[in-house]
Amino acid sequence: MSYVIRRLRAFPLVLIGVSIIVFIAIRLVPGDSITAMLGTEAGLLTPQQRDSLAVYFGIDQPWPVQYWRWFTGLFSGDLGISVTYGKPVLSVILERFPLTLELALLAMLIALSIGVPAGVFAATRNERPADLGVRIAAMIGQSTPSFVVGLVIIYILSAGFGVLPTMGAFTPFWQDPLQNLGQMILPAITLGCAFASSVTRVTRSAMLDVLSDDYVRTARSKGASERSVIWRHALPNALVPVVTLSGIEFGYLLGGAVIVEQIYALPGLGRMVLEAILQRDYALVQGAVLFIALNFMIVNLLVDLAYAALDPRIRLEGR
Amino acid sequence: MAPEMKPILSVRDLHVSFGPAASAKEVVHGVSFDLGVGEVLAIVGESGSGKSVTALSTNRLIDYAGGRITSGTIELLRADGSVLDVTCAGRQELTGIRGAEIGVIFQEPMTSLNPVLTIGAQIEESFRLHRGLTGAQARDAAREALERVRIPDAERRLKATPNELSGGMLQRVMIAMALACNPRLLIADEPTTALDVTVQAQIMALLAELRRETGMSMIFISHDIGLVAGIADRVIVMQDGRVVEQGDLGDILDKPQHPYTQHLLHAVPHFSSGVAARTDGARMAAPLPRPTLEVDDLVVRYPLKGGWFSKPVGAVHAVDGVGFDLLPGETLAIVGESGSGKSTTARAVLGLVAPTRGAFAVEAQAARPGQSRLPVQMVFQNPYASLNPRLSVEQILAEPVIATGASPDKAVRDRMAALLKRVGLPEDSLARYPHQFSGGQRQRLCIARALMLNPSVVVLDEAVSALDVSVQARVLELLVDLQHEYGLAYLFISHDMAVVERIAHRVAVMYAGQIVEIGDAKSVLSDPQHPYTKKLIEAVPTIDRRKQHFELDTRQVPSLVRPVGYEPPAATWMQYGADHKVRADA
């Protein structure tokens, strides 16, 4: 428990660091919110109008003052107002987040339920044709860009079966689970494909290592069946690298999957951040990056806790 | 013939190969033997002799290591009186005999138990597989199995995972697991090689006792004839995949016929209570030469932190107030069990760990101006891991020279060639890589590397422990010769009393971070005074003391963790003879 508290104590420092970097980076990009919002019509503004708009958005102040205002706002839960949406940044993010979270969870579920068995299957048939087949499939899955996978899936469905993926307004899971899953399943498969390929490869190599360990031989000497040797004795010992990989991938997915959201027209975090950058929506970019960084840190902490749960040799307290 | 007169195991003309059929390499060439019911058979040989392969063929575990039985029969007399030819048994039959009829104990208890499962779960598994027990029944059976191998506090140990137990305890757990379903045959594959000598004695005593209780048969695999002398009825000696001699224990020990058996019995170091100790010590000279190395009040502590703000809560006193001196041309052996601080002492002398306190004085024999390192060099235990596989021998030997800031020139190359010749390696070795050498040759390479800088002190940390017994003897000879030639002082760290007896002039016994007894090797080994030294020497298996009963003792080594600011009481020493002193325990 004290380990979790120690880790949590480091969170604010990291978040402040991240926020400063993002704050500066987004302002180094040429252009500002007013020009981005009004497009060519920005040229029609009189200097007075422009200045009053700048005052309204708070971008007339020097950077340190802007940062300080934004930073103090954080403590009252105020991440600023999004210029593009005209709403508080936090509510914009929280509107988008459930979709992204669900997509990431589904993709991981698919990846693990395909990747782990496939990796185990390949490892137990090391260097035989079945192993080779799995490895080639994994290589293809990993090296094919997700937009190709997504387009191929859509093409097959529409050309082959005459169905189109459910588009239109996003339905949250709690409103209509079936409708929601219908919308989410294809994007999740698209993301899950590459993810599953990496999981397969990591599981396979970890299992190969573990299968030559002494305790596997001990299990066999006790008369354990091959199935019990593989699933009960070997696999739990091979899971640490799989958890590491899944944690990293999951953390990335929580930041949004821009391409897949674009292909399937899903209103997720990834597209939101992209648009916010294009629109120079400073407050939204800052808020979103901070939110994504926080997610990443939470996922990392969970991964470390998972290590300790998987392997009693890993002691968190001393680290 | 009545069924009970039949041997439990009958092996005929067994051939085992490794690798794919096309390029198979045969490692066991036609082994035959019988094992009677209740009999203990020892298979003795060095690494690569095929002793483990032969034993693990009897339950076909060898299949999983890439081996294949190419011809021959292995007939196992099953509990129900039927006979099964293991070589052509199906998968079902094999999982049926493994654990139930043939139990196995392996060499490395630390790695042979599953790190993520509790001890209880691993023992219960045997009962589940062969007895169909579940839940509370299986748990009770597991507890009884632990109690049977004399593990104190069995109920609590069931919930422990392997990392929470010591090596000796884990080996008991292994035995409990192997014997869970009362197999009629137990294969013990070097079961004590990885353990300390006193723990080894415990495990051997336990095995002997369990064998009396259950009447099981045993195949005991070992490289150490002295060890099997205490337990075996019959002995098979194997060399290069063939049985060179087999017979009753007494005949093999007293009237060995085959030259290889004679070699194993005589050329290999056996412990003989100080009789074979060296007598060419530097302390015979008067006046005494100046010591090459003096260590005074060496202390190494590792602080333990805990709580909310990482406050120090105590310290592990790995080495506590160790002092000794080492004369030129002299060997001081530091003996002790794992955790006694002997390796930490060596590492502190080398500067690999920072001492908390203590003084060193090294008399530099060949110190050049500007030389930054002390002329102390080292040879480590595992010659397979201590040579960088990506460097050629020439690069490996040049490394110490480069580390001093010099560049390898003609003189250095000449020295390399001379040293290689001196340690007995072929001249063309310079361009070769470590994997092209055998274990013994690699250790010779390590010795040559240590001598490149012409050091005055060489630290040998278990330098021959990983080598086969006969290779061990030759490397020890080389070390003695080199010592005479260059006047080297050796600090020899070992747990093996037989080896220590061959090389040491003086012996220091370490226990719980402190030297408890130090002095002339002959005096310490033949007439130990400190209770711990006595216990240590009694535990060494010897051919002379075979069949001597060893009391089971389940005491644990005391904890080295001390509270903050703890200082041990000052040592008081009792003098026994000219060069032999013993710590008087407070």
Structure overview:
The complex is a heterodimer of chains A (319) and B (586). Chain A is 75% helix and 0% strand. Chain A has 13 helices and no strands. In chain A, helix 8 crosses helix 10. Chain A is globular. Chain B has 586 residues and is α/β, with parallel strands linked by helices. Chain B folds into 2 domains: 8-266, P-loop containing nucleotide triphosphate hydrolases (Rossmann fold); 271-363 and 493-586, Rossmann fold. Chain B is built from 19 helices and 22 strands. In chain B, the strands form 4 sheets. An 8-stranded mixed beta sheet of chain B has the order 15-16-17-13-18-19-22-21, sandwiched between helices. In chain B, strands 6-7-8-3-9-10 form a 6-stranded mixed beta sheet. A 4-stranded antiparallel beta sheet of chain B has the order 2-1-4-5, with helices on one face. In chain B, helix 14 (410-422) crosses helix 15 (439-451). Chain B is globular and about 75 Å long.
Q: Overall mean pLDDT score of chain A?
A: 86
Q: Which bin fits the share of residues in helices of chain A?
A: over 70%
Taken from the alpha-carbon principal axes, the silhouette of chain B is globular
Largest sheet of chain B: 8 strands, mixed
- What gyration radius of chain B follows from the Cα positions, in whole Å? 26 Å
Helix segment tally of chain A: 13
Share of helix of chain B, binned:
25-40%
Domain ABC transporter (chain B): 11-265, 293-537
Function (chain B): Part of the ABC transporter complex GsiABCD involved in glutathione import. Responsible for energy coupling to the transport system.
Subcellular location (chain B): Cell inner membrane
Membrane topology (chain B): Peripheral membrane protein
